[in-house]
Structures are given as structure tokens and as C-alpha cells.
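Its record is retained below.
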Amino acid sequence: MKKITIISAFALGLLVTTSCDSYLDINQDPNSPAESNMTTDILMPAAEMNLAASYGDFLRITGGYYAQHYAQTFGTSNYLDYSQFKMSATRSSSTYTQLNSRTLKNLQTIRSIAQQSGKWGTYLAATTLRAFTYQALVDCYGEVPFSEAFDASISSPKYDNGKDIYAALLAEIDEALEKVQSGDQVATNFLFPGKTAASWIQFANAVKLKLMMREIDAASDVASKLAALVAEDNFPEGDVAYEGCWTNESGGMSPFYAEEFSAAWGSTQINVVANVAIIGTMLQKDENDEVVYQDPRLAAFFDANGSGEYTGSISGSNFSTSDSYKSTYWCRPVASYDMPVYLITRSEVEFFLAEYYARQNNTAEAQAHYNAAIEASCATAGVGGADQVIAKFPYSQQNYKQAIGISKWIALAGTNNFEAWCEARRLNYPAFGSVTGDQMYNQRDDSSYKPELYVPGTLYTPIQVEDKLGPNKILERWPYAESSSARNGNTPDFKGYATPIFWGE
């Protein structure tokens, strides 16, 4: 495969923001490549890197806060609002714009070019990434412009219901799958470099699985299609991620690392640290402060603090009154310049399959896939000890949502925090316990830090939680992005932070 540097792809992402209609006029921009050079081999890496930049950074960070994998460092305030289960219309605007103008528009152009030239491998790849991107937007906002989104004649496109968007995305993937052959070639890309459409077919099936499992309680026509997909059993055998494509240079680092850890990128303040919820679940102690369980993935997900201990901060806190809890006290997520941006892991696929069979009351298959999900999670983390995890968090057919929800929440803590937030909203597990953030830490008294009060496998109400959300509630949706709503007269009224999107109702 032709090698393309990451920094070039990011640069293209800033330039290649055209829709299909404006593609023919792009040579009018002296800063853009000539029309003859605007090929799918150029557009695909640009679309991918802009997806990775948003999904692997902003959505990872916010998802980590809302899923209570992450918390705010005492003494800083950059992400305090996320830690208190808040989101404003302005905070997500740049990410919304990037996903629309630099990812979806490029993918639309790719689909058009591929369709006209009969390049069905490329067509499927762009269609699958389009579905993945729209799924993320729906899961954030509930409703977004879709059917009229890129119609140049419409200045204020309507916001489509998330349920309708999901259905349309599934139809688009099915249409692309009908056209493609496993041996078809795919345009230059970072996700499956040098591979044929066979890998993209498996990824497309995994995206379909996620979409249908998300909407399983909200769409009456899913059951038979889902059964056929599961019976086909053609899913990725490993993790689907952007990996092996990052460099240890400014502009080429994996997005989360560049944002939170790289001084070369301008990151000078520590913000994201481990939350007491995930630490207290993966490292459990008795009343004598003796360790009774340590998850084998803990060191793969979080670095120990400056004293070699695993500590978690409290959601909603932003200051301390002494030197007790400074930056070196709290654990931080394990991160490196070349860390993968996971789109979907084999563990996630197995958890979805476990839930599918649980809903069929097929306990044997459900348990087998549940165990396989934990084994796959440990494999991704590069550790053994899956049997130890399974023994601590065994499968329960009677309480399958609780078992799957908590174990998936743990597994996603080191790979895909955004999807952890989504699944916690859908499955309602981890559930909220009786202990609150205020009880575990009084901001006016550092000596009040009491992580031992936390109950493993639960969420808790943050300190100074968003008052429009209230206690014992997870943030369900975001206000519509200002970059869209400010110019769109068809923007609906915000339904409120506590109103679930369609698959969580």
C-alpha cells in the first residue's frame, strides 16, 4: 500500500471539506488540490484521520467522564463541567463540525466517486465509516441533520430522529454489502491497509450488530435481521482500530495522547485522571485496606501514581486546600504516542453476542460469549488472568444486563470510553449506588477523601452535579451543537439532559 504520513492526512482534512455537489468546483480554491487529483486514495485517509481525531480524543475524553472512568484533577478546571455531567452547545461544536465537514462530507464524495466507477470495495468502506460516524452523532445528540444534511439547496436541514437515522444507516450498509465481493480492492486507507473488501465486510457486520443491538428494544423489525446476521457469524476476528499509523512527532501522534500527554503538542496541564469508580472496581480492598481483588488489566489501563499506588479522583471536584492531592497523586490512563484509536474491539462483539443469546434464553451460548468477551479484553490489554476476572464477575442469566453491563464497562475503560457511556445509558448498568461524591470527598477538607466508601461496580452522583440533571442520573444527551443550531432555524428545542435518546427510552 502507498505510504501516507499522518500529518499530511490531517492537512488534507482541513482542505478536503467538499460535498459531492461542490467536488466539481474544488479547483476554484487555489489552496486545494486540483480536481484531477481529488481521488478516493486522497480523500479516504483524510476522512479517516478526522474521524480518528474526534472519536479518539474529544469523544473518548467526554465518554470517560460520563462513564466515570475519568475524573478531574483537583486544582484544575479544564474539564470540570464534564466531571459534573455537563455539556454545553459550544463545547461540542468543533467536534460536530469536524465530523460533518471533514469526515462525512469526504465520505459522501468517496461514495459518489466509487459508485460512479463501480469500485464497490471502496463504496462499502466509505458507507461503513459513514454509518459509524452518524451512529456516534446520534448517540450524542439524539437527533441530527441527516436526510437533508448535505443538500446545498437547503440552508436549514431538518433534524431527523435517531431511530430513523439508524434504520437508514442499516439500509445503506445492506445496499453496499449486496454490491461488494470479498476480493474487491479498497482505496488507500489506514484501517485495513493493503487488505481487500473482506475485512471491511466483517467490520460492516460489526457496525450492523452494534446498531441493531442498540435499537433492539425500540425497533420491531430488528429480530429476524439480527438473527440472520448472528447466524452468518462473519465478524472481525480481532480489534478494529487505527494503529501502527502514528508517529512520535507533533501532528502525527495518536489524538488522545497528543491532547493530554504531549508537551510537544502543547499539553502542559494534567487534567484527565482515573476515577475512584473504575479504580475501586478493578482494585478492591477489605475493611483493613488489604487487597482482595486486583484486575489483571489494571496496569494496562492505568499507570500507578508517583508512589506506586492506584488512586482515583472524585467526579465534580476541582480544588484542594493543601498539597495532598496534586498531579502526582492520581493515576492517569496509560497512553503513548502510538496508542490505537479503537473503533470496535472483539470484546465488544462478544459482549453483544452474549446479550443476543441471553435475550433468547440460551444460557450456554450467552455464557460462552460472555467469557469470550472477557478473554478478548484481556488479550487486547496484553495480559492473562481472564479466569480470575470471570470468577470475580461471573455471568448471570437472571441478571444478564447487570453482568454484561458492568463487565463491558470495565473492559471499555482502556479501549473505548465513549462506547462505555453509550452502553451504560442503554443497559442501565453500572447502576447508581447509595454513596455520593459529596460523601466521598468534602472539597473544604482534604482529610475527608474516603474512597473506601465506594461500592464496586456502581456509579455515583458527582459533586456539584448539573442541577438540570439531578442525582442518581447519568447524562443522557448533549445540547445540539452551536455550530449547527446557530444557523439552522429547524433546530428542535433541547429535550433536556435527562431525556434518553431513542434506544434508551
The longest helix spans residues 40-66.
